[in-house]
Design a protein that fits this description.
The protein has 482 residues and is mainly alpha-helical. It has one domain. Helix 4 crosses helix 5 and helix 4 packs across helix 6. 54% of the residues are buried.
């Protein structure tokens, strides 16, 4: 085994070990206390990590994981048949024994699911007002979300309600059932990718399965974005598995479920439209028709207030975003926020054009490979440009990256890795509670001062790389897009 590969595996082992330690210990600054375990798994490591220690542990794990990915990308270490099933199964089992960390979102999922399961409207009722704020599950929602109704779509809310029915009055039980859904989504993505990209199983496991950053923010963080990502990949798999109208109908159904989890995941429809070649009009019509029927039915059932929160938060600017520099330099205000939204839309188009030049989705490849490449272009551009973006928004980008050849587009992997690494570092430990003043000062400095500058440098890197890729002459006789 080459020395570089041994080093890469050692880095991965260390990174995964540190992440799992954080998930297996008692509640701390990165993981809220979920109360009595009930019949769900309890804490396996009866130790408590201080806010400083948990922050340092996560920063170290993310940096080691990013270094391992750099070695894989620069050394093209993405070949082979991939991880043994025993290793993947072991990761899934250990993940199911952890407590989610990195945010308190999973507590919000449980709360909104319980409100829906008990017959009320989570898109209208905020956790702190529901039943007087005394419910054993809903009352555990953490700041700053206690006064906010649900922002999640009807399908995700149905899944949350089902986990609430199973978990009952016990928050830990409810969250654990949700963790099983997330782990199943992670495994589903791997299963689909390996079938859509035969011969590239090693690439799938390097970029997706054994990616410590994706595993942490997606699986160990138990975010709904992983469920939506699995539905996107299932939509592409359906179009790949059945090339005719049947596949288009099933793809539209999965796409509707994805956009009914989080609306931004409607991007899969555009990716598939760009990927279709044969019988384009018929397949496009069936795809959009089935998505409209299924998605429309879900939204009619949920009522007109499903996406009220999106409207209210459309002008939000994240603390780690480069747009925050402009917001604070101008003093903020509604007009500035509107201008930032417009500029972000223009930037997203520019980033997409650069990523197209770097990725160059092949016309001659399968519909799955083309669609996944377009997912990388579209969601990568959105993640880079969006004024409000968080680390787990990148999960879908990495689900598409196995379709992009490292040999021809290494810079895409490195750019997106830089973006994800900066975001994971910026949003550690991730909660607004449980930190000492000293740790809060350090982490907020990274989030508000360091991260925006580093992400601005990533923007420059993307733009320069895209311009250079567009100016390079193609080899003689090589058709455009090949």
């Amino acid at each position: 085994m080459p020395t570089t590969e041994r080093v890469r595996r050692s880095l991965l082992l260390a990174s995964f070990t540190l992440l799992l330690v954080v998930g297996l210990t008692l509640p701390h600054a990165a993981a809220p206390d979920l109360g009595a375990r009930g019949w769900a798994p309890g804490t396996l490591l009866p130790v408590t990590l201080s806010p400083a220690l948990v922050t340092a542990t996560l920063w170290t794990a993310y940096t080691l994981g990013a270094a391992a990915l750099v070695l894989a990308v620069t050394g093209h270490g993405v070949r082979g048949r991939g991880l043994p099933r025993l290793v993947v199964g072991g990761l899934a089992v250990v993940a199911a024994l952890t407590t989610p960390f990195g945010s308190g979102d999973h507590v919000s999922y449980a709360a909104y699911g319980r409100i829906l399961a008990l017959g009320d409207n989570p898109w209208l009722r905020s956790p702190n007002t529901w039943r007087g704020g005394t419910d054993p599950v809903v009352s555990r929602v953490e700041a700053p979300w206690t006064e906010e109704p649900s922002v999640y779509g009807p399908f995700a809310s149905i899944v949350h309600a089902l986990t609430s029915l199973g978990g009952g009055d016990n928050l830990r039980q409810t969250v654990w059932l949700w963790q099983l859904v997330v782990i199943a989504a992670w495994l589903t993505v791997r299963w689909c990718l390996r079938r859509m990209l035969p011969g590239h199983e090693g690439r799938v496991d390097v970029v997706w399965t054994a990616n410590p950053l994706v595993f942490s923010v997606g699986v160990l963080g138990a975010h709904v974005d992983l469920l939506a990502t699995a539905l996107v990949v299932l939509a592409i798999w359906a179009a790949h598995r059945w090339a005719g109208l049947r596949g288009a109908a099933l793809a539209g159904t999965f796409a509707a479920l994805a956009l009914s989890s989080k609306f931004t995941y409607a991007v899969v429809l555009l990716a598939l439209l760009l990927a279709f070649r044969q019988r384009w009009f018929a397949r496009a019509g069936v795809l959009l028709g089935s998505a409209l029927v299924v998605g429309g039915a879900l939204h009619v059932w949920a009522g007109p207030h499903v996406y009220d929160q999106i409207g209210r938060s459309s002008r939000a600017v994240a603390l780690a975003s480069p747009w925050r520099l402009l917001l604070e330099a101008t003093g903020g205000g509604p007009t500035v926020r509107w201008v930032i939204s417009v500029l972000a839309a223009v930037a997203a188009i520019g980033f997409a054009l650069c990523l197209v030049r770097l990725v160059r989705p092949h016309r001659e490849t399968t519909v799955a490979a083309r669609a996944l490449a377009w997912v990388v272009v579209l969601t990568g551009a959105y993640a880079l440009a969006a004024p409000y973006s968080l680390p787990w928004y990148d999960v879908i980008v990495w689900a598409g990256l196995p379709a992009v050849s490292v040999a021809t587009a290494a810079v895409v992997h490195l750019v997106l890795l830089a973006r994800l690494w900066v975001m994971t570092m910026a949003y550690t430990p991730g909660r607004v509670l449980g930190m000492t003043p000293a740790v809060e000062d350090v982490t907020m400095t990274v989030r508000t001062n360091v991260a925006p500058v580093l992400l601005l440098a990533v923007w420059v890197w993307v733009l320069r790389s895209g311009v250079r890729a567009g100016s390079r002459p193609r080899p003689a006789g090589r058709p455009r897009g090949s």
